[in-house]
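STRUCTURE:
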């Protein structure tokens, strides 16, 4: 069961959802004209955004701390440029990129402010940064057991280094010296087996998951996840 709901499997399922495709496209729009520009995607995972940024005419560089993710990215997108590296210590020269993007990564960091400061370091003057991701306390899940659901969601949030960082994106960018932040919120809605995959990433409590599995079987599962998107000028 754990293999069925591995991180890579869940990422693939989420990334192909229409709302997720639209969210990535919006993040690219907020970076501006990408033709001939160098873009770093910090925490690139299996590399889909790097490939899409290249299709927009950018020189896209993917960086991820997980060697397995970088290996998957290189296999899937052999023309891409990928590096194993820390979002807080990017393997890039100062002021060497035009755009910076971090998608669903800052919540995994003990000190997200360091990563945003690092984004500021690698960006050339006038560069653009975009942060996007979920606030782990704001998952909306239909359940016959709302109290248990709240407990499980908060327990998962509390197990992460920075679960509520998405609500801080705007202030983190301002504190790092970025200007003119633009804030948007889009909501991902899951009503199929992808929802069950997400819930298996939240908890392994069998009785609660059994109810959700029955909801999935009878087309009654519902999970909504607000996604926070903030862009700013360097």
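SEQUENCE:
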């Amino acid at each position: 069961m754990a293999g069925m709901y591995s991180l890579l499997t869940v990422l693939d399922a989420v990334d192909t959802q229409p709302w997720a495709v639209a969210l990535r496209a919006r993040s690219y729009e907020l970076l501006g004209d990408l033709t001939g520009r160098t873009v770093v995607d910090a925490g690139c995972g299996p590399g889909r955004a790097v490939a899409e940024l290249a299709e927009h005419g950018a020189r896209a560089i993917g960086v991820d701390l997980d060697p397995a993710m970088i290996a998957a990215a290189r296999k899937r997108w052999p023309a891409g440029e990928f590096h194993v590296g820390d979002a807080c210590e990017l393997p890039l020269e100062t002021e060497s990129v035009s755009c910076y993007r971090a998608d669903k990564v800052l919540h995994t960091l003990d000190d997200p402010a360091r990563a945003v400061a690092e984004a500021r370091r690698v960006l050339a003057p006038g560069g653009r940064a975009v942060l996007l991701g979920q606030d782990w306390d704001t998952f909306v899940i239909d359940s016959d057991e709302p109290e248990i659901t709240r407990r499980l969601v908060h327990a998962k949030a509390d197990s992460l280094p920075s679960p509520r960082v998405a609500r801080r994106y705007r202030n983190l960018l301002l504190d790092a010296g970025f200007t003119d932040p633009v804030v948007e919120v889009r909501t991902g809605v899951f009503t199929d087996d992808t929802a069950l995959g997400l819930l298996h990433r939240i908890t392994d409590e069998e009785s609660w998951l059994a109810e959700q599995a029955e909801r999935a079987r009878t087309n009654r599962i519902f999970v909504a996840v607000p996604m926070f998107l903030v862009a700013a000028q360097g």
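REMARK: Strands lie at 38-42, 59-64, 81-84, 97-103, 123-134, 140-141, 179-190, 223-233.
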